[in-house]
Amino acid sequence: MLKMSLTVETVESRVVDESTVIVNLKPMWIGLAGLVTIYATARIYEQVFGWRAGLDSFAPEFQTYWLTILWTEIPLELVSGLAIVSYLWKTRTRDFSTLTPRQELRRHVFLLEWLTLYGVAVYFGASFFTEQDATWHMTVIRDTDFTPSHILEFYGSYPIFSIMGVGSFFYAKTRLPFFAKGYSLAFLILAIGPFMIIPNVGFNEWGHTFWFMEELFVAPLHWGFVFFGWMVLAVFGVVLQILVGLRRLLGEEAVKALSNVA
Known about the structure:
α4 (about 100-140) runs antiparallel to α5. The protein starts with a helix and ends with a helix. The chain has one domain (about 25-260): Particulate methane monooxygenase subunit c2. Chain: C (Glutathione S-transferase Yfyf (Class Pi), Chain A, domain 2, Up-down Bundle), CATH 1.20.1050.50. It is built from 10 helices and no strands. The protein is elongated. It has helices spanning about 1-20, 25-55, 60-90, 100-140, 150-175, 175-180, 185-195, 195-210, 225-230, 235-260.
């Protein structure tokens, strides 16, 4: 009977330990798999239907294969972004005095995972799809601002990384004491800077419509993309702030021990 009791207690203690694990990479891997699946599917779709149905914006097949995506993704992304921000704000921690060091440590780690997903989304949006967009427009003469490349880039991948960035900001603001006390300048730049690429898209399309500029990355019309895109480097400031929080939670002895191991 005593042995059975000890076994039950051991199982219960293991359940508690698993539920309070500090580093849980499963959400990050699931998120990465989801992002890569979305982007890979979009790229394959573009390869198949870009040349077949994406060269003439007045053709019926263009309305079917491309404008349908445009009118679907915009409201879907808008609703998703508002839902994430609303959920984070509604479930925010109102009394941080009840937050244990272990819980705060877990939230710091989760924020780092969220920033990792943000970085992957920025890569695909601001690098992969942006580079292939320039290649597309130097090859194909556009007859509309809503080209197949733009539909996937400007109105697909850009809003996705903007949602990730703003979502990470609100997570930190509503879950961690350091970020909840005020506004981190580094985090504001990290979240708002790349987001401002979306309004810059409007200026870019206006310029191409009225100035008929060649599709060159060095053209002044494209400087806004570079200016706001490089603001993602503010992630280094945010990571430093997170490391300061981890140092405070772990203590000097733990930090020294980890330094010796490294």
